[in-house]
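Hello Y.,

Per our agreement to keep a running log of every chain we model this quarter, I'm adding this entry. I've kept the format consistent with earlier entries: sequence first, then predicted structure.
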Amino acid sequence: MAKIAPFRGWRYNPQKVDDLNKVVTQPYDKIDDKLRADYMKRSPYNLVHIIKDAPRPLDTPMDNQYTRAAKCWEEWIQDGILVREGGPAIYPYFQEYTAEGKTYIRKGFVALIGLDDPKAKVRAHEKTLDGPKADRLKLLKATEANDGHIFMLYKDQEQKINAIIDMEIMGKSPIMEVTDDYGEIHRLYRITSPGAIRDIAELAEGLELFIADGHHRYETAVNYMNECKEKGWKPVGYETFNHRMMTLINMYDPGLTILPTHRVLHSLVNFDANKFLAKAAEDFTVTEFADRAGLYAALDKAASAGKSAIGLGAVGLNGYRLLELKSWTTMDNLVKDHSEGWRRLDVTVLHTALLEKYLGIDAVKLAAETNVHYVRGRDESLDLVGDGKYQAAFLINPTRVDQVAQVAGAGERMPQKSTDFYPKLLSGMVMMKMSIDKSKK
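Predicted structure for the entry above:
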């Protein structure tokens, strides 16, 4: 049961920050050292100073990237860089973007979601790691703020919630509009009507939620809530530790896109593409294509037909190959400890029936990227092959959103790099600062 609440968001003050494009960022887990340095150069108020400040050699328990993040919050509020909305609202968040040559608009809304409802059903599909959760918990303790999104999916086949949102923002200009590094446009709106908020909340209350992105942040929010309760702290209003700022997007939104992440292999000893294909032919029908266009069309056709197919480009091959699984019996025999939905994922087929069975690349090597490099984009993957380092590229079709729901609904976590929801939700569009009663009465 999703219990949502409006909130008085904290946002960048356009009177103090002349270019909002320079202060928003990709989610923290997409920010490497190079991008962090770039963000820091763009503006002294770029949110990276809060969500992923760089550690320094002389850091101490009293002065480190987490305490500096908290100081940024304090100073930016004092200086009017960040300002709080005058009243509670929920925030429609629309993204206009291009994927595979087509333009889409993905519609969502930002609200607070209760974390301590025993009836709540929140489904996860990714495994989490202790390191990122520890990092996010330190930041949360220091700032007592939600500065990044959790991307949640819900099922509303009749588009009832989006219909209310569309009606409320009709004819209105966004309160914030920025363009990200990929050229995608992000627009934030504001709904303050008590009736509209109540209607959306009532529709959302009966919904099951599925985490698309933000598994570490969600588990961290729950862990922090439990720590606060153990300390005897009390929540104050909705903007506090037992709620988390999240962005909810309809699973049936026509603007929802999942991109595939392809696998490019390296450092394989005595890899021979032709010998590999001869072995794989036991379980796969192998079809040769002279050019990429033919391969891509065949992959698309297989996806439309609900078939599992893998594209291959490799050193030593003339042209390209499509490997189409002959029978699901192969997967049923190879995988015994997972649901049928998990066994039917293209990424499972690739990992289990090809990489592990014939090349010895198991789950440990996949996680460590011992022999695998993960790449977005078909051409980008195939272009790497034969450059002296990369030996083969395996192309997969994107995981469908109904497959995400099926696997998560079964209580399972998907294989690594199974989903890439595009575009990402930008950090810095709207934020939440907590009010906590620490008096321990």
